[in-house]
Design a protein that fits this description.
Elements (H helix, E strand, L loop, with lengths): L8 H11 L4 H12 L3 E7 L2 E7 L13 E8 L4 H12 L2 H8 L8 H5 L13 E5 L9 H16 L3 H5 L4 H9 L2 H11 L26 H6 L19 H5 L13 H19 L1
Antiparallel strand pairs: 1-2, 2-3, 3-4
Length: about 280
């Protein structure tokens, strides 16, 4: 599995947080290990991330086969009482509640948490515990650092993983948000029964003929009673929001290119818009 680390805002912020308390040389070695696909397998269970990372053979030390080390990264969960306060802060802001319930992580989610002295991102050694079966006494070793970069790549696709690593499951987050006044109102609106849809007789509106007065010619009718004002500025082109495309993030699982998927589609739609304008 080729790993591209820290391409999005969340992936980069995660690595920047680690850089504040991790030796840069070890992080660089870990990045090389991750890029060389030395992580044999890894998985996430709550706040624990376990992996098997392939080391290097060293004939000088009598190691002729590449060893495989068991590696662990464990994040310190945020206490449940602190989560109650955090959800109270987040649940009072309609923008946060709407985006989170629609499975979109706001970049500014750290602001209400910071007011309570909390953070989803690791801020120091107290937030992360590591272990590895390799003989390197340094912490973190390059195998743990490789796992850091694998996590950053995972966060590129799914920033909600940060909640789980800090002790709040995705399902529990949704339940707590829906229990807030704003969340319950939004959930009720989404589940409101609007009745059974009634099929339309036709997809297109059928024109209805009208009789013109004898004193009005078809030409005068289409020109209108008053002349249109001259020199009216053309409205700016409508922005393409691309909601469905943006829901998958900059680097969805099927996208393995360096350029952000959203940026690529923005450029594509802009070309289509210009072509359509030229044809009209």
């Amino acid at each position: 599995m080729a790993i591209k680390q820290g391409k999005t805002w969340w992936g980069r912020r995660f690595l920047e947080g680690l850089e504040t308390f991790t030796e840069s040389g070890r992080l660089a070695r870990g990045r090389q290990y991750a890029a060389a696909q030395r992580i044999v397998e890894w998985g996430i269970r709550g706040s624990r991330v376990e992996a098997q990372v392939k080391g290097q053979a060293s004939p000088y030390y009598g190691v002729y086969e590449e060893p495989v080390y068991r590696t662990l990264v464990e994040f310190t969960p945020i206490p449940d009482t602190a989560w109650d306060e955090a959800i109270g802060q987040i649940g009072g802001k309609a923008g946060f509640v709407c985006r989170l319930l629609f499975n979109e992580m706001p970049d500014e989610i750290e602001r209400p948490l910071a007011q309570l002295g909390l953070s989803l991102l690791p801020q120091g050694r107290k937030d992360v515990a590591t272990a590895c079966s390799c003989p390197d006494p340094g912490k973190p070793c390059k195998h743990v650092a490789a796992l850091y970069y694998a996590l950053a790549a995972k966060l590129d696709h799914d920033p909600f993983l940060l909640f789980e690593l800090r002790g709040l499951s995705r399902a529990d987050l949704a339940l707590r948000l829906k229990a807030t006044p704003l969340g319950s109102a939004l959930a009720a609106a989404l589940t409101e029964n609007l009745g059974e849809p009634e099929p339309a007789r036709t997809f297109f509106h059928r024109p209805e003929p009208i009789a013109l007065p004898a004193t009005v010619s078809p030409r005068d009718f289409w020109r209108g009673a008053k002349r249109l004002p001259q020199g009216v500025e053309s409205p700016p082109p409508a922005a393409l929001s691309g909601i469905l495309i943006r829901k998958g993030g900059d680097y969805p699982p099927f996208w393995d290119k360096e350029l952000s998927f959203v940026e690529a589609m923005d450029g594509f739609y802009e070309q289509v818009r210009k072509k359509a304008k030229d044809w009209m």
